[in-house]
Amino acid sequence: MNMRFRIAYTVDLDDVFFEISRLVEEAAEGVSSTEAKLRDVSDSLQAQEVFAEMEMIKIDHVRQSLAKIDVRLEESQAMLAGLTDNVEPDSQETTDKKKKK
Fold this sequence. Notes:
By secondary structure, the chain is an all-alpha fold.
């Protein structure tokens, strides 16, 4: 049984962009790996070298990988939002003023 836990930790402000970059890079690597798996499934289907149950398992693994990638991207987005809300409050005001003009 796979259980997932959310882990929170703090980093110095100077390291925030590095941490976000690390998560995005991890997601990018996951996308590349997942794409290769998906192409393998597609190739098997096109060649009609198919064991339906095996291809269903491969597709499920791809979907699980994509879900993990989405979590990393969601975490990255939340970190950026928190950074904007807490460190760059003037940027939102500037954006709002530009929209009003």
